[in-house]
Amino acid sequence: MAFEGILLGMGNPLLDISAVVDDEFLQKYDIKLNNAILAEDKHKSMYEEMTSKYNVEYIAGGATQNSIKVAQWILQAAGATTFIGCIGKDKFGEEMKKNGKLAGVNVQYYEDENTPTGTCAVCVVGGERSLIANLSAANCYKSDHLKRPENWALVEKAKYFYIAGFFLTVSPDSIQLVAEHAAANNKIFTMNLSAPFICEFFKDAQEKVLPYMDYVFGNETEARTFSKVHGWETDNVEEIAIKISQWPKASGTHKRITVITQGADPVCVAEDGKVKLFPVILLPKEKLVDTNGAGDAFVGGFLSQLVQEKPIEECVRAGCYAANVIIQRSGCTYPEKPDFH
């Protein structure tokens, strides 16, 4: 099977500034664990404090880019994946380009002259993480870049698309262009709920693109927030997953499948009005380094099998494998070669 350019991701490229911090730091900046938020004014001095006070690591990240890199890593086929997003013309941007190339991803960044590359503070306490994203240049992506002939050619070449919900805050028109292209050409379009605040504050943008989604990813917290926002009056993840899968579709070519991860609890997959549960690989507490990127890695693993047209069981198995590898390391990083058979 020819894999070149088969999977295209679009999102917010962010340089993760990752550190193990303490409870006092979380309280000072009003940070809750296992959450993902956009930086506000009160977080401005946080990045500086992290780099001066703690031992930080810099890792090229951002939700969609993480997933695409993990898919590329498992596929081990040069140039199978493409990633589009916006960075600044600065040293962090250069770092990002270098990292993308090393990962084997075809990165096509729009470079903003006036805005620094986006960063994401990854605060780790007891293996659990919280993300505070300062989008900066990532927020400047324009659909004009996507429409350039050389970039649109990449969209036309791809057969699978993945976009994290975070990109709804940046360029909903770019998402719409890709979603409509996928529906018109029988391609597979996938998205992620990504964070409770997306379901709450970007509800309209999310609803507009939902009919185009063939696969919807998310975790149990996001699923419950989605349910609450839509007045479904249920906290039952299985019920919510079914309801999301039954949301009207823009094209009848593919049915919608909802995939909800629940930490150490089984992965919930809803299709055809039924739910299947798949156990995850349990990890002894002492082996857990940090959960940053676990959800992204799951999606990347899942997509690596989906683009090979493998059955859903295999997609979930690869997702669980990838998440298990990533939580034993700092940030969304992985060994040189996968050990997935």
TrEMBL record:
Pathway listed for it is:
Purine metabolism; AMP biosynthesis via salvage pathway; AMP from adenosine: step 1/1
Q: Which GO terms describe its biological process?
A: adenosine salvage; AMP salvage; purine nucleobase metabolic process
Question: Which parts of the sequence belong to the Carbohydrate kinase PfkB domain?
Answer: 26-335
What Gene3D superfamilies does this protein's entry cite? 3.30.1110.10, 3.40.1190.20
Q: Which SUPFAM superfamilies match?
A: Ribokinase-like (SSF53613)
Which domain of life does the UniProt lineage start with?
A: Eukaryota
Listed under GO cellular component are: cytosol; nucleus
Q: Which InterPro entries match?
A: Adenokinase (IPR001805), Carboh/pur_kinase_PfkB_CS (IPR002173), PfkB_dom (IPR011611), Ribokinase-like (IPR029056)
Among Pfam families, the record links this protein to:
PfkB
Q: Which reaction does it catalyse?
A: adenosine + ATP = AMP + ADP + H(+)
What is the protein's known function?
Answer: ATP dependent phosphorylation of adenosine and other related nucleoside analogs to monophosphate derivatives. Essential to sustain methyl recycling.
By sequence similarity, the record places it as follows: Belongs to the carbohydrate kinase PfkB family.
Indicate what this protein is called per its UniProt record. Adenosine kinase
Q: Which organism is it from?
A: Lupinus albus
